[in-house]
Amino acid sequence: MSSSKETPAASVASALFSSDDTSLAEGFRDKVAALHSFFDRDKDGFLNHSELRGLQLLTSGEEMNVPTYLMACRSIGCDPQQGISLDGLRLVYAAEGSNVEDDYSKVFPAKGEAKSSDDKEEDVLEVGED
Prior knowledge:
Blueprint: H1 8-16, H2 26-39, H3 49-60, H4 66-75, H5 86-94, H6 100-107
Helix pairs in contact: 1-5, 2-5, 2-6, 3-6
């Protein structure tokens, strides 16, 4: 066992996401980093409750209360007082049921992308039509 003071999230994440790890697509790492950076409003390198709440509201429409935030931090080995690190967010997105692609596209929608068939648009009448 290592005697370093590395947090559990950092320890696991460094094993999973090391720069020479070719098992994960660079796109995954880049998208998680972009999401983390976008919501890290105070630029301290961690997502506090307010910042993580913003990510969740935008990507799922669900509110995040403080007890849920505390549980999320503790489950990935992050200090709730400090927040969720980039490595911690990578762990979240590596978990089953998480989809970084979906969340990334909600936060950074592609310009000029065709709307999906799920988008409901009202019929638009041209001028002069009944």
